[in-house]
């Protein structure tokens, strides 16, 4: 069996977002996130389910095993959401269901460690960032963990 450097492994991940303008986080949890989470949890094959209540809506992420097809998963999610629509507030917008393909988001994390001053590691990270950004097919490079340097100047005028 040939090995690929970037295999396309389909893991069905579905994102559901329900928007309700001007709802608080607490109300969003009670009125949106928990009812949706309880309904979607009953879908066969759910490997992991995460619900997040926010100002203005609720977001639920479902992950299924590789043995489930994306079409089957989407159909099950749509069916469950149609069952619960009447239990959600009337002002809530229709749920937005999105399919997430993890193979479309290749990510590489690089950690820099060494017996160098922090400023030297930061300079190396910035040079690496420029080099990686220049590679074809690289969309974005972020450097994390860098402190923002500030200078405080106190002027005491003498007359």
UniProtKB/TrEMBL annotation:
InterPro entries: AcrB_DN_DC_subdom, Acrflvin-R. It comes from the Eukaryota. GO terms for cellular component: plasma membrane. It holds the Pfam family ACR_tran. GO terms for molecular function: xenobiotic transmembrane transporter activity. Signal peptide: none annotated. Coiled coil: none annotated. This is Uncharacterized protein. It comes from Rhodnius prolixus (Triatomid bug). The lineage of its organism: Eukaryota, Metazoa, Ecdysozoa, Arthropoda, Hexapoda.
């Amino acid at each position: 069996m040939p090995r690929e450097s970037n295999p396309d492994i389909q893991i069905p991940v579905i994102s559901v977002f329900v928007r309700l303008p001007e709802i608080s986080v607490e109300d969003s949890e009670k009125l949106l996130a928990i009812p949706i989470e309880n309904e979607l949890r009953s879908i066969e094959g759910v490997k992991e389910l995460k619900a997040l209540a926010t100002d203005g809506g609720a977001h639920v992420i479902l992950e299924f095993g590789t043995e489930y097809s994306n079409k089957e998963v989407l159909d099950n999610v749509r069916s469950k959401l149609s069952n619960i629509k009447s239990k959600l507030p009337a002002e809530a917008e229709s749920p937005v269901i999105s399919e997430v393909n993890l193979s479309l988001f290749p990510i590489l994390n690089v950690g820099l460690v060494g017996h160098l001053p922090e400023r030297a590691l930061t300079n190396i990270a910035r040079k690496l960032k420029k080099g990686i950004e220049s590679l074809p097919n690289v969309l974005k490079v972020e450097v994390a963990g860098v402190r923002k340097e500030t200078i405080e100047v106190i002027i005491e005028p003498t007359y």
